[in-house]
Amino acid sequence: AEPGPGPGSPIGRVGGGLEGSPGGSRRVFSPASEFREFSRRQLRDMERLFRQYDAGKDGFIDLMELKLMMEKLGAPQTHLGLKNMIKEVDEDLDSKLSFREFLLIFRKAAAGELQEDSGLHALARLSEIDVSTEGVKGAKNFFEAKVQAIHESSRFEEEIKAEQEEKKKQAEELKQRKAAFKELQSTFKQ
Q1: PANTHER family in the record, alphabetically (predicted)?
Q2: For 85, 96, 114, 148, which has the most beta carbons within 10 A of its beta carbon?
Q3: Which parts of the chain have pLDDT scores under 70?
Q4: Which CATH superfamily is domain 33-127 in?
Q5: Domain boundaries in the chain?
């Protein structure tokens, strides 16, 4: 079930951020749990892109920031085109994009729900973020949902392990470079 619209607030980091609702209650927005069709890497890439164009660093992409973004991506839009792009995913009707609404663009792109001539389609295509989805979608019953949850968590564990292995490898390479440098230094000191 899609959560109801509510005014967004700054995102902080992937996994952080708050989305409010008109009644004043607030809930934590967790991209990884709400946008399960995307991998951690895809979500990080999307957050990096969002932060890159959030010039005001307020956790939103407004009309002028979106205008600049589309120009940099090589697909400039008219003022009306930009307004229509925001309107298509602006759940809380605040005329700017929260990080959650920004992710909706890529969800719609992955599901083939964006018209080819739309600004959002151009944004998703030109951003060079691969939105091909992985894993089981639309589980029909409890058993399938459980299998999907196991699959999702094991995929995230695999990604975390791969990230840790990469960090270990980088640390080891750094250690070897330092040792080689010290060895080189000692030959000069003699």
Answers
A1: EF-HAND DOMAIN-CONTAINING PROTEIN D, EF-HAND DOMAIN-CONTAINING PROTEIN D2
A2: 85
A3: 1-27, 132-153, 189-190
A4: EF-hand (1.10.238.10)
A5: 33-127, 135-189
